[in-house]
């Protein structure tokens, strides 16, 4: 019964996330058509990303990682009302703290802009400051949305939060196609404020309907519910997740030293983000609350099944997609982007970055799963340490390659860091908590999956050189991806029978 409800919830969330990612892709395509690869587009991308970057680094993922397990613990050991009081008090505290933080950033906006795009000139930074001052209004709104989203996830009502990106992107799409031009970028900033406000409104309404706030407003001014140990866990989870979110932010900041570098980096990563976001958000919104609930009941065997099922699904999807996209990167980028101000040279440059970036996709999604397992077991210190080490590696690698390899080198540094981060998390999870990401798959089987991926990428690279017709290249890449799908399924069928039975 639990497996059926999990599958249904995952399907509903997957549909919502798919629509959100599709509209996000359309948003990027709209910017590419209207603004091309230009400084104006760099500004637009910077403005759109600021609230979500701040939310993800300072509030978002850490809020769910800490609140969801704590809600389940209090509901079982204390009362449902106590869990609801935790949500309401967290909402108001986050609103106050994030507003003060946004005010501080507004006062220090020049410094903040230099961090996000240190390659900008002084005049470009002054231009960006005006837009960032507007968009900072969206940060407190986006921050409290993280609380309502975590509350709904904890109550196994993830659908409305999953539609949040769809609401956000639709509003931005309207602004882009009707009002945005190279001379009128400030419309984007105000559209972001409107979009995050609407997203919050939908979640608050759903929280009242689901009874999330029932009894939560009693003893509102008594903050004994927010204990010091909980705040410490939040700080650790905040830093660990925030640092991971900072990976592409740091890389984009290095890329700002090159004309149109932010745009090229964003276009390539957006295509990687599409499948990553679809699976990653489903893991966070559906799998994580259930893993947390099962761990709180002490049912380690069932938790291991859920983790293995999720990891197997990730491998089954990401390895074939990685191989297929590597082969047909240029025709796909041309089909999606080459219109308006987006030139043929921009297609070539974006495709090269996409071929590098797609190699990071399995690691990026598996890292989400491993971090969720840590947080479901109330372990926040180790992911925090690993994330700090990984970010340091990214900065050092980026500094080492930016002059000799340019934007491509920065993307290589991003890929290497992503894999290092995942492997460090996986090994630590096994050693510290004795939890295997894929139960039943031995080292030799993992080696077979790695060799399969490397062979598929190598074959794709050779295919690109000999197949010049774009349609044929896409067709051959899809066929190669299907072959890899079958090979991965065969390995999982032979060595992870539980996954196979649950899949079918």
From TrEMBL:
It is a multi-pass membrane protein. One of its GO terms (cellular component) is plasma membrane. It comes from the Bacteria. GO terms for molecular function: lipid-linked peptidoglycan transporter activity. Keywords: Cell membrane, Cell shape, Membrane, Peptidoglycan synthesis, Transmembrane, Transmembrane helix. The chain crosses the membrane at residues 43-69, 90-112, 132-152, 164-181, 187-213, 234-254, 274-292, 313-333, 353-375, 382-401, 407-425, 446-467, 473-492. InterPro entries: Lipid_II_flippase_MurJ/MviN, MurJ. The keyword Cell membrane applies. Pfam families: MurJ. It is found in: Cell membrane. One of its GO terms (biological process) is regulation of cell shape. Involved in peptidoglycan biosynthesis. Transports lipid-linked peptidoglycan precursors from the inner to the outer leaflet of the cytoplasmic membrane. Belongs to the MurJ/MviN family. This is MurJ-like flippase.
């Amino acid at each position: 019964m639990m497996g059926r409800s999990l599958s249904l919830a995952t399907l509903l969330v997957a549909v919502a996330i798919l629509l959100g990612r599709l509209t996000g892709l359309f948003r990027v395509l709209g910017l590419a058509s209207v603004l091309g690869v230009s400084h104006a587009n760099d500004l637009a991308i910077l403005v759109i990303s600021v609230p979500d970057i701040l939310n993800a680094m300072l509030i978002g993922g850490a809020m769910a990682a800490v609140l969801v397990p704590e809600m389940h613990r209090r509901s079982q050991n204390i009362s449902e009302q106590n869990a609801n009081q935790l949500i309401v008090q967290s909402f108001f505290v986050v609103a106050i703290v994030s507003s003060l933080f946004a005010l501080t950033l507004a006062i220090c906006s020049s410094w903040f802009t230099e961090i996000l795009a240190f390659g900008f000139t002084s005049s470009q930074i002054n231009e960006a400051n005006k837009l960032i001052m507007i968009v900072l209004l969206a940060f407190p709104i986006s921050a409290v949305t993280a609380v309502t989203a975590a509350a709904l996830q904890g109550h196994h009502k993830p659908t409305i939060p999953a539609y949040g990106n769809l609401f956000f992107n639709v509003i931005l799409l309207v602004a882009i196609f009707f009002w945005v031009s190279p001379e009128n970028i400030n419309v984007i900033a105000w559209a972001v404020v409107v979009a995050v406000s609407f997203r919050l409104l939908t979640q608050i309404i759903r929280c009242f309907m689901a009874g999330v706030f029932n009894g939560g407003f009693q003893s509102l001014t008594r903050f004994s519910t927010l204990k010091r140990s909980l705040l410490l866990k939040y700080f650790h989870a905040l830093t660990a997740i925030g640092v991971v979110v900072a990976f592409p932010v740091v890389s984009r900041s290095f890329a700002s030293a090159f004309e149109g570098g932010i745009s090229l980096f964003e276009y390539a990563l957006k295509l990687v983000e599409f499948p990553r976001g679809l699976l990653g958000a489903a893991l966070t919104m559906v799998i994580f609350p259930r893993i947390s609930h099962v761990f709180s009941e002490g049912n380690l065997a069932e938790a291991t099944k859920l983790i293995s099922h999720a990891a197997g699904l990730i491998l089954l999807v990401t390895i074939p997609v990685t191989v297929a996209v590597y082969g047909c990167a240029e025709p796909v980028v041309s089909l999606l982007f080459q219109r308006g101000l987006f030139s043929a040279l921009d297609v070539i440059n974006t495709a090269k970055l996409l071929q590098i970036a797609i190699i990071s996709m399995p690691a990026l999604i598996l890292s989400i799963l491993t971090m969720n397992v840590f947080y479901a077991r109330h372990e926040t210190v180790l992911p925090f340490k690993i994330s700090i080490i990984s970010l340091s590696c990214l900065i050092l690698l980026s500094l080492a390659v930016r002059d000799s390899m340019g934007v491509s080198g920065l993307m290589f540094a991003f890929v290497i860091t992503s894999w290092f981060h995942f492997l460090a998390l996986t090994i630590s999870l096994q050693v510290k908590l004795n939890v295997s990401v894929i139960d039943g798959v031995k080292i030799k089987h993992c080696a077979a999956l790695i060799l399969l991926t490397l062979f598929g990428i190598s074959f794709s690279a050779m295919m690109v050189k000999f197949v010049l017709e774009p349609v044929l290249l896409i067709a051959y890449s899809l066929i190669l991806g299907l072959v890899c799908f079958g090979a991965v399924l065969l390995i999982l069928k032979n060595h992870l029978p539980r996954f196979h039975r649950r899949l079918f």
